[in-house]
Structure formats: C-alpha cells, structure tokens
Design a protein that fits this description.
Layout lengths: L2 E7 L5 H14 L3 E6 L7 H4 L5 H10 L1 E4 L13 H8 L4 E7 L12 E7 L9 E2 L4 H12 L11 E2 L5 H17 L4 E6 L8 H14 L5 E6 H10 L6 E4 L1 H15 L8 E3 L4 E4 L17 H13 L3 H17 L5 H7 L8 H10 L2
Parallel strand pairs: 1-2, 1-3, 3-12, 5-10, 8-9, 8-10
Antiparallel strand pairs: 4-5, 4-11, 6-7, 11-12
The structure holds 1,4-dihydronicotinamide adenine dinucleotide.
Amino acid sequence: MASHTVALVPGDGIGPETSAAMQRVVEASGADIVWDVAEAGAHLVEEHGTPLPASTIEAVKRNKVAIKGPVATPVGTGFRSVNVALRRELGLYACLRPVLSIPGAGGRYDGVDIVIVRENSEDLYAGVEFEEGSEGARKLIALCEEEGAGAIRPDSGISVKPISKAASERIVRFAFDYARRHGRRKVTAVHKANIMKHTDGLFLRAAREVAAERAEDAAFEERIVDAFCMNMVMDPAQFDVVVFPNLYGDIASDLAAGLVGGLGIAPGANIGDEYAVFEAVHGSAPDIAGQDKANPTAQILSAAMMLDHLGEAEAAERIRRAVRAVYAEGAHLTADIRKATGSSKPAASCTEFTDALIAAF
Ligand code: NAI
C-alpha cells in the first residue's frame, strides 16, 4: 500500500478531540498516512496576529491534500473566517457533502443517499457588504433609484450577491463529473431564478447548458429552492446529486444532515483543481469542547472521503463498514445520537466510541 503525506489541521473547540479519534481510526484501517500537522484557530491570534498562519496554508499546498477539524470564527475581532480564507486561498470552489442514512443514527429516513455539491466561491458569501448609513450603501441606493431598479429604504444594509456564468458552469460540470465517476443517475440544480433572474437565472441557464452537453453522464432536473426544501422533508430519497449556488447549498447541507441524524455524522470536502481539504460540516461546538463528548463520526467519514480521493478505496470502505456496524449495534453511541434517537441508554464518550469503532474492523 502506498504511503501518503497529508496536512492535518486539528483546529479548535472539539477539533483536536475529533482529529485524534480520526487519526486512530485511519491507522486502524490499514492506510499508510503520514500526518503533516499544522495549526489554525483563534488561539493563534495573539502570537501570530491571524488565526490562519501562512505556514498552515503552505502545509496544505505542499501536500495538496488536507484534513481539518473545525475552526471557530472569532466574533468581533475583525478576522475573516479561517474556512472562507482557506477556500479562497486554495481555489477550493466545490463543496461536496454526501448525505447518507446510517441505520441506528436517529435519522428520520432510511435510504437517503444524496450528494450535495455547493458552489464555494461566490454568491452572498463573497463578503461584499455595505453597512447601513455608510457611503457605499448610500451610493448603491442612489444608483438603484437612478436606474429605476426599485426603491430601497435609506436605512438599509446591503449584501451583494455576485453569481458568474463561469463559476456556475464550473460547479455544474463538477456535479456531472462526480455523477459519471460515481455511477450516479441524476443531477438536480436548485435555484430561485423566478425571482432573481440575473443571478440565480444565470446559474440556471449555465446549468441547463452544461446538462445538455453532459446528457450521457446523468439525467438533469431543476427545482426552485423552496419547493426543494419541502420535497426533501417529504421524500429525500428522490434526490441523487444536487448542485446549488453557495447560500442555498449551505442551508440545504444542514437540512439534509438533520434528516439523517444530525451534524455529528455529516462529512464534507472542499475541492479545487489543485487542492482538496476534507472536513466535517459541523463547527467547533464550544459548548462541549474539551469534555470528550464530541461525536467524531463526521470527521472519520471525511477521512474516508479523503482516502477515496487518495486512491485508498478499500481502507475507506473498511472505515464506512465499521461505522455502520457500531451504529447498528448501538451500544457505544455518543450523546448527540442518544438524543436524536430518544434513547435513555448511557452515552459513550468520544474515546469509547472510537475504541468500539476500532474493535469493529
Ligand atoms: P456547531 O456545529 O459548532 O454546533 C452546533 C450544535 O451541534 C452544538 O450544540 C454542538 O454541541 C453540536 N455539535 C456540533 N458538532 C458536534 C459533534 N461532532 N458531536 C456532538 N455535537 C456536535 O455550530 P455553531 O455553534 O454555530 O458554531 C461554533 C463555531 O464553529 C463558530 O465559531 C463557527 O464560526 C464555527 N464553525 C466552523 C466551521 C468549520 O470550521 N468548518 C463550520 C461551522 C461553524
């Protein structure tokens, strides 16, 4: 088996705990991974002046592949989110979030197997904002009035929603490529083009064009985002690969995670042309940090995605099999899952869960 070096960014909050659990499980899977550990997080601000030191970005670039724990965004310090900064710096334009039912994890549905593909670089997350009363906001309001584009109240704050043809085509192509490579049958594009004709409308037109070129890869369908949410709650099994502009993709990821058992089991990846960073959907969970209570499943399943990416499909599948076995058996599940399943059995710690997982290999 080939040896791979990957950057490991444990992060903060529960990150160091879930990362340590993940490392133990990857080792037990038989994969030969060398960890190049780099730091990110609010605890570095005092010493480095930033939660994301240049050496950490360098470590990811050097190894091309990274797995990271969550990193809290310090509120009120003026620092940009580490996650947004990393995605920008490394050109990670696609956010990939598989949503899979795990029997025993307390999901509302069985048989869900959806892959969410979220555009990661633009939309309302571009960070272009004007505070209410600022010169920028006043100018924009005046421009809209001049253009007859509709009245905006003078005390409005404004966030700009840029959506480009190039980035829309790129993400939809990514979704079709993924569908082809993984034997998926259908790609659904989600939008609100009936209201936002020049942004979501552009995304939808790009999606239709790419779909027409890629008809051999997968079938194509469209859903308006509000209808999509209702469809998800009523019958999520109807979806396969679903591609979104940034904001809807973010919201839909959490919605989907909630349907199959919650954030504790939802893995993810941020992927670009050169680099890939694997990470759970959840945040740093400061309410349970340092207490050995966190559910490491999401980061462990993110590691399985990483192993697939590295060509170590067998080790990845061994991990997924062990996860399914521990949930099916049900004796060593963490507090979040006990709550989701309404079980009064005692909760396992992060360490106990990880021990059980390793014993299931
Ligand atoms: P969160 O995901 O950290 O927590 C939400 C709730 O879910 C909390 O009750 C938490 O205890 C629970 N939870 C989350 N992950 C869990 C796990 N693995 N096991 C058991 N319970 C878990 O979201 P929140 O509170 O909105 O954000 C906290 C911090 O995390 C913020 O500073 C935010 O900016 C950051 N964040 C970082 C992300 C990343 O690094 N990728 C993603 C999302 C948020």
